[in-house]
Every structure is written in C-alpha cells, then in structure tokens.
Amino acid sequence: MxxxxxxxxxxxxxxxxxxxxxxxxxxxxxxxxEQLEKACAxxxxxxxxxxxxxxxxxxxxxxxxxxxxAVWHMDIQGLCAGVMHDVLEDxxxxxxxxxxxxxxxxxxxxxxxxKLEKLEYNNQAEHQAESFRKLILAMTKDVR
Length: 144
Description:
This protein is mainly alpha-helical. The chain is built from 8 helices and no strands.
C-alpha cells in the first residue's frame, strides 16, 4: 500500500524522516496511514519553528521515535503517540485539544510520557534509552 501524500509542506530533512517512517510502517492499512499523516502534520505544526541543538527541525526527533516504534510493528495509536510525544510538553497544545483530534487513548499515552519527562540523565544515550522505556511504560494501561 502506498503512503498518503504529506499534508504539510515539509522541508527536505523532515520529508526524508517522514518518508522513512511511512516506509517502515508500510504494514498499516490505508485508514491508519491517513491517521499517521494527520498526527505527523499536527506535530509538525505544533513544533513549527522549534529546532534541535544541531539546528535540525525539532520534528525530526519525534519522527525518528515513531520510526523505531514502527520497526517494532506498534499499532497506529502507539505510532501517533510516538510522533506527538513532545507536543503537550513543548508546545501550547492541551491534552483536551489532542483528545478532540486523536481520541482519549492517544492523548492519555502522550500525557503519560510528558509527566515522565522530568527525569534527569547523565548522557544522550541514556536519555534516548529512557525515552523509549517511558513510551512503553506510558502504554502499559493499554497492553498493545
């Protein structure tokens, strides 16, 4: 199945990260791919103007997280939560707004991740490993 066309005007680096996510998540059906595209566009717009220390658009990080989740064949709700995992914490979007767009389950998953983000780390590798652990922990309410 072919991935839906992006709804957001992505820069080349973001487009490359998005395309990798959709290639990796090719197991999703058409409706799920549309929902994932909606989550990508939502996160892209929410993080608009934010950059990483490297100067890359910030959205490349959540796209990389979701791509790793796709490697593990997570379901659509897990992938959407991965793409949007920093939206509540780092932008002006509220949990209520996210729930209205994506449902209570995804909003709860993202909110759980945001609450766990306050931990401190010794290095970047430890932080990334902990980010994946937190995503899994946040999904323990829903065993998928």
